[in-house]
């Protein structure tokens, strides 16, 4: 769920208050469950005659029951689970616990890859993988050290490497030839509540559900197969045992039942293959990454022209004397992130050092387009995220900024008597390859 954040440490929390509260949490946050109180008075199957019910005359009842032995307790479902369950592993770290799936062998090396969720291992200094041997006896468990290959917080995926190749490897579903369809059977296998491997069965409830998780929009599969804390990073299989998703979140709330989520297998394949392809680059401390991905490296709040706010005070602005009239969308810089194009540059870090004292806004960007530098102000048709998706690693761009410098007396709306003056300045940034975990 959430490593003390999002099942889901989704921990981004979406709150809908009408008569109930609905939120999304990652599969690493432990939610309280009903407990069966053990008073020590547990009865077994052996009984003595003194406890046998009697009729009104004090005579024991003589009851005939029927007992039979089935010819075969296995079903197609149990056979499928038996074949696939050992491809799911338990992951324990110094910051939490979760699940993982044995993804594939490393050619030419005695090693294998495991896919899990980024939030399961994020921040961990030690990662241990327990191989699932299919029984409940922990004495013979094989526990291995795992090393990080690559991870990404936005996609919530990570790849680990362990030694050995004698494992049960998951088989990935080819969704181009067999697309995932609504209401097909879904089997979730993972390590809920850290209690060991377990299996739950349900159906695919939604194919492309867009949710907001920890500030990122994700398009996920939805399932009513029960998932709980510790299922994060575990598998969602189809009825034939093919992997169709990696479990990473659930909805919680007083009126919520059966709303789990998984990263679709087609996204898992593309992103994990990118980690594996790019790992080993000494420039990024060997960490794998999504090639060509750019993040600016600042946290921003989106504000419209008529209403701007931050955590310290509320500001109403509706006067072109203080803000440019060219656009109605501003990005208020709230903090510098650990990773990203701005974070990698010490020079640019210094420019943002005053973010805790003054309000800073990004209003526009100048960037290369068709061989020329083009300046564009942000608005509903040109947003910061759209710009970054179309930008290239190595592009030299200019961020046009506004900084709050003084209070100007005057009334804009009834009840609000403060407005602010701003100074304009520019920040030049070379866009960097985004590598989650690499600080430069």
Return the structural class: mainly beta
Main-sheet strand order equals 6-5-2-3-4-8-7
Oligomer: single chain
The CATH topology annotation of the largest domain reads as Thrombin, subunit H
Helix content: 10-25%
In words, what does this structure look like?
With 440 residues, the protein is mainly β. It has two domains: 1-30 and 78-290, Thrombin, subunit H, CATH 2.40.10.120; 298-430, no CATH class. Helices cover 10% and strands 37% of the residues. It is built from six helices and 22 strands. It starts with 22 loop residues before the first strand and ends in a 10-residue tail after the last strand.
List keywords for this structure.
Thrombin, subunit H, elongated, mainly beta, 6-stranded antiparallel β-barrel, about 35% strand, 6 helices, about 450 residues, 2 domains
Question: What would a concise description of this structure say?
Answer:
The chain is mostly beta strands.
Please write out the topology.
Elements: E1 23-26, H1 76-84, E2 88-93, E3 97-105, E4 111-116, H2 118-121, E5 127-131, E6 142-145, E7 147-152, E8 157-163, E9 185-190, E10 198-213, E11 216-223, E12 235-237, E13 243-252, E14 260-264, H3 265-278, E15 298-304, E16 308-309, E17 314-315, E18 329-336, H4 341-344, H5 346-351, E19 360-369, E20 372-377, H6 384-390, E21 396-413, E22 416-430
Antiparallel strand pairs: 1-13, 2-3, 2-5, 3-4, 4-8, 5-6, 7-8, 9-10, 9-12, 10-11, 11-14, 12-13, 13-14, 15-18, 16-17, 18-19, 19-20, 19-21, 21-22
